[in-house]
Design goal:
single chain; about 20% helix; 8 helices; eight-stranded mixed β-sheet; six-stranded mixed β-sheet; Metallo-beta-lactamase, Chain A; binds fe (ii) ion
Amino acid sequence: MDRIEITTLIDNVTDSLSSTPSFVTREWVWLQQKGMKRVAGGSLCCANHGLALVITVEAAGERRSVLFDGGPVDYAVERNGTRLGVDFGAIEEMVLSHGHWDHAGGLPQAIAMTRAANGGRAVPLHLHPGMFRERGSRQPDGGVLPMDRVPAPAEWAAMGADPQVSREPAVIAGHVLVSGEIPRVTAYEVGLPGQVARDAEDAPWQPDEWLHDERFVAVNLRGKGLVVFSACSHTGIVNVLHEARRLMPGVPLLAAMGGFHLSGTNERIIPQTVADLGGFGLRWMFPSHCTGWRALNALERAYGDAVVVPGAVGKTFVLEA
Ligand SMILES: [Fe+2]
């Protein structure tokens, strides 16, 4: 690609004040470019626990857009999407990175807004067969807190999506790589401790810590290398980058963006992860969503703020060849 533009439609964090490198536009500046004349609460985006990225790639003057996840809830897509001026009609395809509510919950709204702007065309939605069981988190008292389910393929079709259910890698919108299942090659990245799943309301909860349904997305910036988008990294961000290298041999890794999931029970793997991330030659790291403040601080201490640029809602990143 000659150019990659990433608009953060939804993220856990709002931060329009911290300074950023010149290729990153902060939310308020972007909103001014989109016509905001006066700053006010009602003019701004909302932060929510979740992630949604609009990725627009450009080659030979042709722009193509995909949506990587939809965040947790419909109103965040509507609120942030309209304020940020997201061109929903240009979104050709969508990817749900894994079967969690904080990435899937806003997709129905994104599908509706896309179809309202594209003449009613069905939107291909890339899914994995392992994301439709009901999931939950084991609680300290031994009980289970269920998570909102991911709609089944037929339900997505009824919403106007064209569900593409696969475990295999694919190239979408001409240029965007969607990975297959991500092999576990490190010893310390062991998924999401305490996650369980069940096949029916009356079925027993079973261990479900590996999240084999998680996939990543990657784009090759001409002459610079691969930008890897990992939404929640339940497979481990180091495993993700090993697999990105394996899928695109000979292409250097330029940047890793998304949720590195080094919060909660995964805080114990921060030191090893931060050390191993140094082995990929990344020019940038753009951690966001579920990375957690301890890992974010550890990354910044290790690699500095010329390398580590955290995400936030409304931030737009433009990378050029
Ligand atoms: Fe997540």
